[in-house]
Amino acid sequence: MKYSADESVLYLDNAATTFPKPPSVIYESVKCMARYCGNPGRGSHALARAASEKLFEVREKLCEMFHAASPENVVFTLNTTYAVNIALKAVCSEGDHILISDMEHNSVLRPVVSLTEKRGAAFDTFTSVGDEKSITDDIKRKIRKNTRILICQHASNICGNVLPIEKIGLLCKKRGIFFIVDAAQSAGLYEIDVGKMNINALCVPSHKALYGPQGAAAVIFSGAVPDSLKTLVEGGSGINSKDIHMPSELPDRLEAGTMPTPAIAGLSAGIDFVAGKESELLRHEKYLSRILCEELSRDGRITLYLPERIGSVVLFNLRGASSVSVSEELDRLGICTRAGLHCAPLAHRTLKTGDGGAVRVSFGAFNDIRDVRRLIDGIYSVERYL
Question: How far apart are CA 247 and CA 274, in angstroms?
């Protein structure tokens, strides 16, 4: 089903943000702004109460979807990057050692580097491409006495690689390591159970595979929350206004200022759109990726990166042409892809794509086999031109 206003545009950049959004998501965001967009927690009047009730409803939905202990453990934020920063900086102390995978996005790498500079932390990377045993064995080798945090992506933003987070979570539990999962590319496609998988903090976006609007995300803490979480930002919370410090309880401790209520309302509809269909959506996107990889693998000028790991994302380069030039030519044909390093130079280094990165194609719920055929025709057209 197509919802795009411009049928001539083929959107294949869903790893950045899913588009188009389901009509129900658009309707709910607009409905919020038109009917009940008071400031949640900042008044006792009807519209403030209605906004607060909507936020709590979405906390409950996220709690149910990811099997968290309590809706109060769902902390809203602006995007997954903020969620990662909140989770990391809430628990990292002076001198802690942190483990990250060798495929991490800059939303993980940069905060970790900042913690090494500002809190005297240290970090190492572990291999993320391989079987479960090789990955967990490498993690075991990298663990130190002061390893306090392990943070990693669930699914890659540049290829189909998926980490065995349940195995990693069990290892972290045994070693007393705080486990943070960046689910930017997996929330809404893969089953995630924070309790079963021993995840201490799960970072999820609204605007990707949950099909909500941009401007909202969440950190979902499991039951194992430290007594004193460090705050990233401070400000009004709507409660205990005489206290000059942030509240001690969640979610208020980590939610300063006005929440993006219309975006969160849209996320509510996005969750409804996805819930119960995660495996079906993933199968659909994998099917499209498989067809594309099978076709492109026949072309000697095209390099596919990790094509054996089929997911929602396909990464390729055309020999003799820069990734940017290929993506620009596809754009002239009305096909939206993304070129370069995709804010993940560490991952590109691991896959050895080169300094210019590669072209990323990422499928969503509203793509179909006709889109794959149009893309293939477009790539071959660009190949002849370049």
Answer: 33
Residue 107 confidence (pLDDT): 98
**Does 257 share its domain with 292?**
no
Domain shared by 181 and 92, yes or no = yes
Q: Say whether 284 sits in a helix, a strand or coil.
A: helix
Same domain for 263 and 299, yes or no, is no
- Provide the pLDDT for residue 1: 44
Q: How confident is the model at residue 224 (pLDDT cuts 50, 70, 90)?
A: low
Q: Are residues 238 and 300 in the same domain?
A: no
Q: In the prediction, which pLDDT does 223 show?
A: 78
Segment among 15-24, 195-204, 246-255 with least mean pLDDT: 246-255
User: Is 345 part of a structural domain of the chain?
Assistant: yes
Q: Give me the chain's average pLDDT, please.
A: 95
Residue 159, phi then psi, degrees to nearest 5: -155, -175
Cα dihedral value 35, 40, 41, 46, nearest 10 = 0
Q: Is the pTM of this model over 0.90?
A: yes
User: Which residue shows structure tokens 């479960």?
Assistant: 132
Strand partners, 75: 219
DSSP for 157-223? SSSS-B--HHHHHHHHHHHT-EEEEE-TTTBTTB---TTTTT-SEEEEESSSTT---TT-EEEEE-S
Claim to verify: residue 180 and residue 290 sit in the same structural domain? no
What mean pLDDT is predicted for residues 155-166? 98
Q: Are residues 47 and 193 in the same domain?
A: yes
